[in-house]
Amino acid sequence: MATCLEWRAHTYRQTEGSLRDTYEIACLSAAQLVDLYRARELSPVEVLDAALQVVDDHEPVLNALWVRSDAGARNEALASENRWHQGKPAGPIDGVPVTIKENLARAGIPMPLGCAGVTPQVPTRSSPVAERISEAGGVVLGSTVMPDWGMLSSGVSSLHGVTRSPWNPDWTTGGSSSGAGAACAAGYAPLHVGTDIGGSIRLPGTWLGLATLKPSAGRVALDNPYLGRVAGPITRTVGDVATLMSVIARPDERDWTASPAEDLPWTDEVLRQPHGLRVGLHLDAGVGMRVDPEVATLVARAGELFESAGAQVETVEPFLRPGMIEDLDTFWRVRSWNDFVALDQDGRDRVLPFIRRWIHPAAQISGTRVLACYQTILELQRTTVRATLPYDIVLSPVAPVAAFPADWPMPFGGLDTPDLGMAHIGFTAPYNMTGQPAATVNCGFTRDGRTVGIQIAGRRFDDIGVLRAAAWYEAARPADAAPDWPIAPLASVAL
Known about the structure:
The protein is an alpha/beta fold. It has helices at about 5-10, 20-25, 30-40, 45-60, 70-85, 130-135, 180-185, 200-210, 240-250, 295-310, 325-340, 345-350, 355-360, 365-390, 430-435, 465-475; strands spanning about 65-70, 95-100, 140-145, 155, 160, 190-195, 210-215, 230-235, 280, 310-315, 395, 440-445, 450-460.
């Protein structure tokens, strides 16, 4: 069985003219699939068949999907095949398999939000993201799982159980877009949509080696906007991030926070050299968990690569003060406590014990304290913008540590460990609060083989600048930083 890197080095077809095999199809990017559809060398139905086989093989171990939509996907693939036959594709992802996180509404699909205590809502209309994907011809395989209310940085859920990494099932996927990340790294589909309020797209990015983007606030319309929340792409290549953004980055009347429509060059494939870019290198958040030396070394190495290409790289000193992330954490605890007390007693008993412990202190928090926490968030916004505005991009770790055990709810452990709140999101959460775009690209591996991503953040609304920097780095990074994806038959995966 050829690895994904070896497959990409070959032509798409064997000399006999037959497609190599299911897992080689699974290695292909969205851009490669569309090229093959256009050349009539591959059919959306063939690709769906391969995708469903990969899902069948891996899902019993990985546990990435809440709902499989095999029948609907079959109809969408057949319709796409017909459009390609007529030379009239519906959009840039016509016929490409996609998954959508369970908290992004799909009409008729229950939304339990990863929590066994919730009585799921069943939406009658799809979210803006799902509608844009459908309009562009995407083939939706299903809805991916998340932890309870999306408030964990792992794949641990009271409803779904544990979601596991295809790199090693003993390792976390990250969260809260846990199912999307696992499905992406395992080759279920090239394109996945997650959501992010404090790092939930980018944390799977670093702990699974993926290319992701937390877009600028308002860039991707939501039907349930909230402070810091965004939806964005989780893929294996920066090019696929850009392609998916070209589809989902549109306003919708349901999102009163959405930015105006812009005709942005998402898929401009000209790589911009970083010569002359002013780059901040931010290796110490100043709060929360210490950065593991292996992580810091790999991110610093990426900074050196930018500098060698002519960028002006400067150290960014810690700009968050003690208490900022703690106040944000308190604000979120109160928000989740309100969700918790709205459940009946039976529902409360089914909520993940770790979440119950996390939210319990919120029962004693006054309205005055909540308002003080909100004022801290405003200070965090001001401080982050002031510290990063001098730079075109800021490079940093995504998280202070590499992947932790799959059954830990958070990087610091479970119920038998001290409650450290959100001590691990000092690099990610500030950009949610300011609305600045931030991407991830894998920048290396620890000695024991765990992926480490670099975060590339930019000024608000400069999503294109961030993606161009990410695309340059992806192309220029050392060979030992490029993932050879764990897309393989289940017998080849370490269990």
